[in-house]
Amino acid sequence: MATGAAAEGLKDRPRARSFDPIETSFQAQAYGYAGLLAGWGRTEMSGDLLGPFSDANDAGFVWGGFLGYMVRPNQTFAFGVEVDYVRTNFEKTIVVPAFGFETLKSDWNASGRLRVGVYPLTGVSVMVYATGGAAWSDRGDGMGGVYGGGIEADMTKNIALRLELLRYNFDGTAGDQTIGRLGVSFKFLP
Q1: Is 13 inside a domain boundary?
Q2: DSSP SS3 for 51
Q3: Are 173 and 143 in contact (CB under 8 A)?
Q4: To the nearest whole percent, how much of the chain has pLDDT over 70?
Q5: Structural domain boundaries enclosing 50
Q6: 86 located within any domain
Q7: Residue 83: pLDDT above 80?
Q8: In Å, what is the CA distance from 114 to each residue of 24, 79, 80, 134, 137?
Q9: How many separate domains does the chain show?
Q10: Is the residue at 184 inside a domain?
């Protein structure tokens, strides 16, 4: 046991705790958002005249917008829903022997999707996510599915940037589309 001056020095020293809980300032979040997107896409369309013999591929610039709602119950997990509308402007004219020309065109697509993401780094607002759902197109039967993934980073409390890759699979002659896109989201936080 320490005595005298040594005891006084020990008394003034702060005690070290063997187990301090990690303090965080995170609070669960639920918010709506809206955004704009632009990117590049590729389509594989089938013609009406000769089926697989009148297939055409095209690529080009895409742009559009999206609306969604996300819930982030803790620091590492988030889930939500999103709808989007994308102008594609894919068009290809092909020569069909003995029939003439056929123009294959897809002007837009839309989707309704679920998004599920994780924040792999504590304290960094970067989400890696998977997404999937139903899709619609102005071409052919126009119904199908969409799946993909992306990464989203918060730039400020209310603005986030995202980079995502989506694959659209449409029934019938609508064809399939692969679209890479960059987007900016504006969050409506309480």
Answers
A1: no
A2: helix
A3: no
A4: 71
A5: 26-188
A6: yes
A7: yes
A8: 28, 7, 6, 9, 19
A9: 1
A10: yes
